[in-house]
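Can anyone check this?
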Amino acid sequence: MRRLSERWSIDTANGRGDGWFAKNRWGSGCLTRNRRGSGCPASGKPGAERGNAIVELTAMLMVFALTAAVAIVTTSDLLAHRGAVVAAARDASRAFVRAESAEQGRIRATELAAESLRERGLPPPQVVISCSAVPCLTPGAEVTVTVHAEVPVPVLRNTVEISAASTMPVDELRRQRE
């Protein structure tokens, strides 16, 4: 008799060599291959239940599919919000460099960033404007507008801060504005 594992062995003494199983280590009466109607469990263990593996696999797949769906929805929401914040920063910086004065530019950039996010259902952002020269609208200078927005994550019932910055040059051919 040759041992395949701790649990099963093959009876080669019968001369057939066809893989009929000998007694298992529990000594059950199910000594041959499982046949329909033999009353032997598929695993060879006395009292083993049939069909549990498919039920457990189905349950695990359902949990995995639900987790994957939640992750995909959350990630897509965050990417959409990120795109909205980037667009708001770009629009605000463009509005600032095209304004007639720095004060008018700050007001217009803040309003435009808030409007851009409001259209996408997000709360008003915090807008920070920095300039590479003083006054800000000096021809050739660069203006950087950074937009910070608290965006909701519905699945986690929490908020995440998303920031984006955009830098635009002030047109060199325009006259200097304050």
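Reply from J.R.: I decoded it. Residues 2 and 10 are 6 Å apart (CA to CA).
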